[in-house]
Write a structure and sequence with these properties.
The chain is an alpha/beta fold. The chain contains 13 helices and 22 strands. It has 2 domains: 301 residues, 3-Layer(aba) Sandwich (Aminopeptidase), CATH 3.40.630; 140 residues, Aminopeptidase i, Domain 2 (Roll). Helix content is 30%, strand content 23%. The strands form 4 sheets. A 9-stranded mixed beta sheet has the order 1-2-3-13-4-14-20-16-18, with helices on both faces. It has a 6-stranded antiparallel beta sheet with strand order 8-7-10-5-6-9. Strands 11-12-22-21-15 form a 5-stranded mixed beta sheet. The protein starts with a helix and ends with a helix. The mean pLDDT is 95. The structure holds manganese (II) ion (2 copies). One manganese (II) ion (MN) binds next to α8.
């Protein structure tokens, strides 16, 4: 039995206030001014996405923007023997496909960098080295797909061709066909439903074979007057003559070419309310654009050096010369250490990398009610609920994942909350139905803090992907806050 005194104490004890963690769309949290900023930002992003159809083009546009924003060539400064001072902005290109940007901070490099990294390569169809194949007077480009695609989605849509060809003498020819409304486009044909009974009975994954992704590029045999009796493939002959005349290209030149076939046409506002963006290559140009824009717009001279990397080859595992598995970034940080400090040591480079904080800026899957059976609605990011932090990726029990530490999530979360960034946590979907990865693990190996942070998408890796404008804008705001922290 309670005494009178004890009863009074119990009455004074109020129930503790609890804050439920609710996830909702963020529109009402933005004032008129910020809603306008969001629209302006998205308009500029749509322009970028419509032009940046390959990693090379994305790299070149970003480099051009960087130079306009006062970034100098690190390799040139190095040659001139110039030292870097706080506030200076530098860039370094990795073979025209991966680009590193940095603004030197007041603290020594060995204190670590604030780094944001995204990728600019996207799933697509690459022309094979011997690409021109004629069959029954139809001319095709034989392709090898790049990245994870659902093959059937790439048939019957207008396609464009972009890339470079290096001729016998080493000169470079740039090709871009299919974006201007007056340009012709290319396509992959599909079977009509009237003859499609057998095809329709096959599983989705096997009904369309990778090797059958042949892009139709011509159907008219060469004019009699220009015919070469020794060449049997007459439609190919017409195109070879055309290529020779227009670009000076011979068939063997395709051996030293990188030609990419991508969906033709610009990105568009999506929805009657224009609340979304439909376009090719949101993965991961949506985060790449936000990364460089945040870098350009971040205020003041930072304490810790700010850096951005927009990289190639993520979609095929980050391997190779221009992927994040290469030593490009490590070498670049070594150059920065060398040009900012009086004495250089390998230890300083290791410290700079290990003490860095990084947002691995990549897209993630949105909860799509149309595919609720593979979703985990409480834990999958939802459209326009903000930029998504993905603590871990991987598959089969987080296999292959770089699981960010709770400590680092706490730091990032505080930066976002302090700067009114609308954000959400997320993971891929139902456990054990699939999996995926990002560049995070290639940076985590240096011992740095790294977490995936990016925009949620519908229809990821499809020719046309969908993103919510609020999320698109919040990625920019998040990366900027991270740089300014
Ligand atoms: Mn990605
Ligand atoms: Mn991807």
């Amino acid at each position: 039995m309670a005494t009178k005194k004890n009863t009074k104490k119990a009455e004074e004890k109020k129930a503790p206030a609890v804050n439920l963690w609710k996830r909702e769309q963020g529109w009402d949290k933005l004032d008129e001014k910020e809603l306008k900023q969001l629209e302006t930002y998205c308009d500029e992003y749509i322009q970028f996405l419509s032009k940046a159809k390959t990693e090379r083009i994305a790299h070149d546009i970003a480099l051009d923007m960087a130079i306009k924003n006062g970034f100098e060539n690190l390799d040139e400064l190095n040659k001139e023997g110039k030292k870097l001072k706080p506030g200076m902005k530098v860039y370094r290109s990795c073979y025209g496909k991966t680009l590193f940007l940095a603004q030197i901070g007041k603290e020594p490099l060995e204190n670590g960098l604030n780094l944001v990294g995204a990728h600019i390569d996207c799933p697509r169809l690459d022309a094979k080295p011997f690409p021109l194949v004629e069959d029954d007077k139809l001319l095709f480009i034989d392709t090898h797909y790049y990245g994870g695609i659902k093959k059937y989605q790439w048939t019957t849509i207008p396609l464009a061709l972009h890339g470079v060809v290096f001729k016998k003498d080493g000169t470079k020819v740039q090709i871009s066909i299919g974006e201007d409304p007056s340009d012709p486009v290319l396509t992959i044909t599909d079977l009509l439903p009237h003859l499609g009974n057998d095809q329709a009975a096959k599983p989705l994954g096997t009904a369309f074979q990778g090797d059958a992704l042949n892009v139709l590029i011509a159907s008219r045999p060469v004019d009699k007057a220009k015919d070469d009796k020794d060449i049997g493939e007459k439609t190919k002959l017409r195109i070879l003559l055309m290529l020779k005349e227009k670009y000076g290209i011979e068939e063997e030149d395709f051996a030293s070419a990188e030609l990419e076939i991508v969906p033709a046409g610009p990105a568009r506002h999506l929805g009657l309310d224009k609340s979304m963006i439909l376009g090719y290559g949101h993965d991961d140009r949506v985060c790449a654009f936000a990364t460089i824009k945040a870098m350009f717009d971040a205020k003041g001279i930072p304490n810790r050096t700010r850096a951005a990397v927009i990289c190639d080859k993520e979609e095929i595992g980050s391997y190779g010369q221009t992927g994040m598995d290469s030593t490009f970034m490590e070498n670049t940080v070594a150059e920065l250490v060398n040009l900012t400090q009086d004495t250089y040591s390998d230890l300083q480079v290791r410290r700079a990398l290990e003490r860095s904080n990084m947002l691995s800026a990549d897209v993630c899957a949105l909860h799509d009610p149309a595919f609720g059976d593979v979703s985990s609605p409480n834990n999958m990011p939802k459209i326009n609920c903000g930029v998504a932090l993905i603590k871990y990726t991987g598959s089969r029990g987080k296999g292959g994942s770089s699981d960010a530490s709770a400590e680092f999530v706490s730091q990032v979360r505080k930066i976002f909350n302090d700067n009114k960034v609308i954000w959400q946590m997320g993971e891929l979907g139902k456990v054990d139905v699939g999996g995926g990865g990002t560049i995070a693990l290639y940076l985590a190996r240096y011992g740095m803090n790294v977490i995936d942070c990016g925009v949620g998408l519908f229809s990821m890796h499809a020719p046309m992907e969908t993103a919510g404008k609020l999320d698109v804008y919040m990625a920019y705001k998040a990366y900027k806050a991270f740089y300014e922290a």
